[in-house]
Hints:
The protein is α+β, with helices and mostly antiparallel strands. The protein has 13 helices and 22 strands. The protein folds into 2 domains: 3-73 and 141-213 and 330-396 and 451-460, FAD/NAD(P)-binding domain (3-Layer(bba) Sandwich); 77-139 and 214-322, D-Amino Acid Oxidase, Chain A, domain 2 (2-Layer Sandwich), CATH 3.30.9.30.
Amino acid sequence: MAQSQMPYSVATRLPGPGLDARTEDLFSMTSQNKEQDLVLIAGGGIGGLTLALTLHQIGVPCRVYEAVPELQPLGVGINLQPNAVRELYDLGIGADLLDTIGIQAKEWALVGRNGNDVYAEPRGLLAGYKWPQYAVYRGKLQMLLLDEVKRRLGPDAVQLGNRVAGYRNEAQGVTAILETGNGVQREVQGRLLIAADGLHSAVRAQMHPTQPPIQWGGAIMWRGTTPGVASRTGSSFVGLGSLKHRVVVYPLTPPDPATGLSILNWIAEITVDNSGGWPQGDWNRRVKVEDFIHHFEGWNYDWLDVPAMLRGAKEVFEYPMIDRDPVPTWVDGRVALLGDAAHVMYPVGSAGASQAIVDTRVLGAAMVQHGVNAQALQAYDQKLCKDISALVLRNRGAGPFAILGLVDERCGGVFDNIDDVIPKAERDEFMARYKQAAGFAIEALNAAPSTITPGARVRPA
């Protein structure tokens, strides 16, 4: 369809902080259009919900289709880098809301198995960013976004119990094939289909039917939360151990006034031979601490008793550390991939959820520039696919934790002064390269204009 035939045209920034009455009426009429005028979103996770908020902000009607019959606050801790927090702030989700589901990070540190520092740096506002970095409950962030979507777009904006099982590109738009939990299928039409349906994306599988299977590099993670005393700054992300045998711990809450204890999010990890493939049938399962704690017995420090922390968790879940090989494009006609469906990556650089949020804003900016059409999807793809595919491979190579691999290679993990093993300039340069690749290099981020100009909308034709 020619762009002039579409019900949207590219908008410049409208005068003033809001819209005039006539334009508001036009957007109201558009929001009530038939289903085929909507942008269809597959997946009600962090990426899909943030995209819904972004599209609403720029005046594009949309609907989210989520496979599960009920969204629950699942998952433990994740980190939101300043580049993602900036985008949430621009969506009106500021510190007043984010402080209710997490805590602003102050430090990122790596510590050797002997307890000596390998690398440490301030994070967020303390590092000079204009926006903080947050450690948040993943499930609580999803529920916060869901509440905002329902409040801003209406209670019917998210359709539960509907999995997007496939699609067809059409001359006038796209058809999404929906499937309920009992296998009943129906079809809906829309302008575009954006697949934010995660690791097992049916849309990605159709778009790239010969893609290799999920890649497991041999790392096994056990995750939980435990009440404890937050070390160092009181809001530090600490990676402790070696490249293939480590613990990550950071607080999700400030200290309780009565007990002085924070909720500590922790990940215990080892790397094993992966030649036989992932031995379990489940991609995540509840396990007993006794199943793995022997790997960490004796990890006692004056600032952290690792075995006691592991035993203090009410629930522990086991996950393989997995990703997918990058694909050459995230777009097929009027269909695009977003978030984990596009670039599931190892969780070693706190880039997964952050990049999903950034994806939505880059896509929104492309629609503001080009309209709600395949051209916008191509612009989004050209801006992100190549660079983020490189980040996927960088994280597979351990991301920022690769510094611990250098320590292992050069001294077997035993040292008194890290400067004798890896000079400070080398460590700083390594981290600077990772931040640049992940999109949160401080000078570039602070100087960058907003991804979507405040007040910009896709104007109805």
